[in-house]
Amino acid sequence: xxPTKVKIVEVGPRDGLQNxxxxxxxxxxxxxxxxxxxxxxRNVEATSFVSPKWVPQMADGAAVMSGIERRAGTIYSxxxxxxxxxxxxxxxxxxxxxxxxxxxxxxxxxxxxxxxxESIARFEPVAKAAKDAGLRVRGSISCAxxxxxxxxxxxxxxxxxxERMKALGCDEIDIADTIGVGTPKRTREVMAAASxxxxxxxxxxxxxxxxxxxxxxxxxxxLEGIEIYHASVAGLGGCPYAKGATGNVATEDVxxxxxxxxxxxxxxxxxLVDIGDFISRAIGKPSASRVGRALLAKRQxxxxxxx
Length: 307
Ligand code: HMG
Ligand code: MG
What we know:
307 residues, eight-stranded parallel beta barrel, 8 strands, globular, binds 3-hydroxy-3-methylglutaryl-coenzyme A
């Protein structure tokens, strides 16, 4: 059954910006988070507490978290690869921490410098400390639909990591297509297999759009009853440890799709288009959102016709 309501997790401020070579000012990051929450996004992934040597763009995580306004009911999430990151998240009063592993050994090594088993052992105290502190815990599984280093990733290895993340007490688990190679058939199969071992209403789809399949993959996941989707305004992003991977599916494109299906998101598409324009100008790159560009062009041609 296709859900009637979907939660959008906006990952632009983190996944979207983490790969930008030029440092994006802390002020811009704060404005981005604030505007997204005001547009009705109930869960914003605001920043990371990772090693600044590994991801320099996220070095101002604490400043971003202390500068943003907190909207009641909005969940502000941050990435925490280890206890050091968790301590930063706790200090910053994050609502949710994200531990991030992979279904591919090769990617695990490149991204967090350890094996899958070592990562789970490292996440154990992080997840426990977060639970003890009353924080939500989300587990993200990279390369669930393919890996830039090893290629094919089996469904069994995805399910295995879902089970390990579940054992850590994750409230939500992300099935992530890091390099955007997945197609709808495979997406359905992976979601169906994952939902046999973890409640489907707490599974999410995190699709990068490298091969232009992300909207199709979301539709396929909707058919499997998945209710949570990650997206990045203006389609910002790319992973520093997955060369050639482009950004997440654009939030504007996802909301347009869901509006067309009559699925409630609570997110205002017009405001999203403005936010996509704002951040694209701020980083000096054109928006990767088809919907964002189309709606902006429509507005401009409408304005011209009125002159
Ligand atoms: P390491 O080098 O093995 O660990 O990195 P280390 O403990 O030796 O630490 C190295 C240095 O970093 C030390 O500093 C630590 O103090 C410091 P030094 O002594 O050399 O001066 N350090 C920290 N600093 C701040 N905050 C911390 C922290 N931890 C250590 N939390 C580590 C291991 C996990 C730290 C590193 O590999 C790392 O930070 N990786 C993060 C990679 C990352 O952020 N990748 C992108 C996010 S994941 C993603 O995008 C995928 C996702 O979107 C889903 C999908 O699409 O697939 C979620
Ligand atoms: Mg990602």
